Amino acid sequence: MMVKRNSLIFLTAFGLLLTGCSKSGLEITKDDILEVARDDANATKKECENVSIKEQKGSYMVSFNTNGGSYEYKIGKDGIIKERSFKRGAKEETTETEKVEEPVKEEKSTTSKKEEKSSTSFDEGQQQAINAVLANSGLEQSDVSNITCSLDSNTNQYTVTFVLNDVTTTAVVDAATFTVISTILG
Length: 186
What we know:
Blueprint: H1 2-21, H2 30-40, E1 49-56, E2 59-66, E3 69-76, E4 81-88, E5 91-96, H3 124-137, E6 145-152, E7 157-164, E8 167-174, E9 180-185
Antiparallel strand pairs: 1-2, 2-3, 3-4, 4-5, 6-7, 7-8, 8-9
């Protein structure tokens, strides 16, 4: 009888452990939210000063300063960036990742050396994807060279690449929302 009782206790405890581990919602901490913002800003922990994280209506408001400027983010409790604002000096650039409404610039790529693509004009969707990636990185199109942009119709994502200071950056952008999904340096 003792063996059955111990087995029952063990199975009950194991079942409770599994139930606790199978929560459907993710629990995102303030540290996780700060990591999302720092990653988006390409800033290390040491580079961030005056860090502020405030919980507000189902989102976190995150702000911090770096040598490059000041950043403000509205990040959902699911870890998705809803709004971002970057301020460099007196100039402020703001994008909403839910609805990126960047003005479409009619300018051509300003690359003069090592051009990877013979055509420097982009369609409206490609230019919006490029604008989203550059705003996400706090850059202007004139700051970078060798810009390319292609649409993968299977995943409905743009891949944008450019070179800045001899470092190639590749970013993936959702074609429906023009949200930057990932950025890889090098």
